[in-house]
Amino acid sequence: MKNLTSMLDIQKADTSKIDQVDFNNLVFGQVFTDHMFECDYKNGSWQTPVIKPYGNLSMPPSARVFHYGQAVFEGMKAYKDQDDQIWLFRPEENFNRINKSSERLAIPEFPKEYFFEGLETLLKMDSAWIQKGFGNSLYIRPFVMATEAGVSASPAGEYKFMIICSPAQAYYSGEVRVKFSEKFSRAADGGVGYAKAAGNYGAQFYPTNLAKEEGFQQIVWTDASTHEYLEEAGTMNVFFRIGDKLVTAPTSDRILDGVTRKSVITLAEDHHIDVEVRRVSVQEILDAAKSGELKEMFGSGTATVINPILGFGFKGEKYELPKIEDSYAKFFKDTLMKIQYNEAEDKFGWRHQVK
Ligand SMILES: *Cc1c(COP(=O)(O)O)cnc(C)c1O
User: Fold this and answer.
1) For residue 1, what pLDDT is reported?
2) Most buried one in 28, 31, 113, 255, CB count within 10 A?
């Protein structure tokens, strides 16, 4: 069936899987909705985008993505308010960023109207999967990969852009303590750190496993050349509260320009919280922890919004942060979520309604 009002080809699932899903016991990223969005690139252009039942792909084993990791992705969420209206949070940022990531991986840019038409149609078709209630959401995973057959180490001429969606509950990642990286690096100058390139994440698993053996849940990466400056965590930017001042590293070609990060900075400025965007040295944080000036650390990212960090380790020493009453982490999480769920004024025009 061709949808007459749009450029999309829509193939509806015969039945829904939704009745088999226990929405009170969701494991993050395990269950997917009834439909998915798919658009192929060949002969120099993006073909007619399709929405079809969620299902397996069939690809040649020689497809470039399997050999050279020519793939990028995004992470975003849809929220439902008490009146069943569906909202996205700053989706243009994700759209722009996936194309920025694609450019770095020599993947052709994806057209904006395909992205929004495809995403919004998909969300409306699978809207029953977006559960109401503060903390419930639909995690959205757009991604692009090189599908052309052939193992020559060169950019592919064929790609697939897809969007899949997974219902998510309020994400509680457990207590998070981090290790400041002393040896391993995530990104280097001139590299791909700023892109959500698939390989950036696969390369973190091994060092993170080693950190887990030492009792940490995540690594805060330090700059690759000196390991003296703190950059970001696995899929989160990182903030430090020293006294009542908030400090975070500037974005660069090594650090991902997080949507949550920039929203936190804007909210901090709006609430007259002193915020400094500058390099943060490991030494400064060690000193602040020892003097008691280090009051909080937290990560920011779409999946968890704000994730408090309870302690950190560096060179065999472990540091615990004090318990705090008027936590910035809690303030930013509540403030951001109220905006996301249409429960607070949207002063900055961040909400985008799916109609
Ligand atoms: C996705 C991601 C973030 C967070 O970005 P948001 O837009 O806030 O979700 C931070 N760092 C890295 C490395 C990431 O991949």
Assistant:
1) 46
2) 255
Q: Whose CA is nearest to atom 2 of ligand 1?
A: 235
Q: pLDDT category, 234, cuts 50, 70, 90?
A: confident
| 341 to 25, 122, 217, 264, 334: CA distances (angstroms) | 21, 19, 29, 16, 10
Q: Whose Cα sits closest to atom 13 in ligand 1? A: 235
Into which CATH architecture does domain 177-340 fall?
Alpha-Beta Barrel (3.20)
Does the pLDDT value for residue 108 go beyond 70? yes
Angle subtended by helix axes 259-270 and 91-104, to nearest 10: 140
Which band of pLDDT confidence, cut at 50, 70 and 90, is reported for residue 170? confident
Instruction: Tell me the domain boundaries of the chain.
Output: 5-168, 177-340
Taking the centre of ligand 1 as the mean of its atom positions, its distance from the CA of residue 235, in whole angstroms, is: 5
- CATH fold group of domain 5-168: D-amino Acid Aminotransferase; Chain A, domain 1 (3.30.470)
Q: Ligand 1 center to residue 31 CA distance, Å?
A: 22
The pLDDT of 147-161, averaged and rounded, is 97
Q: Are 256 and 217 in contact (CB under 8 A)?
A: no
Atom of ligand 1 nearest to the CA of 93: 7
Closest residue (by CA) to atom 15 of ligand 1? 235
Average pLDDT over the chain, rounded to whole?
96
| H, E, C per residue of 50-71 | EEEECCCCCCCCCCHHHHHCCE
* Residue percentage of the chain with pLDDT more than 90: 96
The structure's pTM equals 0.96
Atom of ligand 1 nearest to the CA of 196: 15
Joined together, the tokens standing for residue 259 give 């949507």
Residue nearest to atom 12 of ligand 1 (CA): 235
List all residues whose CB is within 6 A of at least one atom of ligand 1: 75, 196, 232, 235-237, 256, 258-261, 300-302
Q: Which residue has the tokens 């703190």?
A: 230
Q: What is the pLDDT of residue 5?
A: 53
